[in-house]
UniProtKB/TrEMBL annotation:
Residues 5-117 form the PIN domain. InterPro entries: PIN-like_dom_sf, PIN_dom. This is Type II toxin-antitoxin system VapC family toxin. It comes from the Bacteria.
Length: 127
């Protein structure tokens, strides 16, 4: 059963052993992540020296429920742009927020700016 949505920053905190990662580890197998955010995680792992195959294998071992971006999710992410403009919210962030909006699940992130967006979401800051 999916319990929460994970932002890229939450997954990376777990993988890198950063502050807040300890909150993410126990729930990883019960979480959803947008395919857009998974691409961000893989990109960051490659940027830090992993091969593409190593990055893919690393993310597969996390057993997260990867949710493909749909037209509905893309539309929500696009609509969030006006509300989040100038607040440091990336396209990947908006896809994560949109998935949380669609599912009604809490979303875990290290991005403190999300708490100031005024969205009707259960945003759980990991640090």
């Amino acid at each position: 059963m999916t319990e929460a949505v994970l932002d890229t920053s939450a997954v990376l905190a777990f993988l890198r052993g950063e502050s807040g990662g300890e909150l993410v580890g126990p729930i990883l197998g019960d979480c959803a992540i947008s395919s857009v955010n998974l691409a961000e995680v893989i990109t960051k792992l490659i940027d830090r020296g992993s091969t593409a195959e190593q990055a893919r294998q690393t993310t597969e071992t996390l057993s997260m429920n990867v949710v493909a971006a749909t037209l509905e999710t893309a539309a929500l992410a696009g609509m969030l742009h006006a509300r989040t403009r100038g607040r440091g919210v990336s396209l990947g962030d908006r896809f994560c927020l949109a998935l949380a909006m669609e599912t009604g699940l809490p979303v875990y992130t290290a991005d403190r700016a999300w708490a100031e967006l005024g969205l009707d979401l259960d945003i759980r800051l990991i640090r």
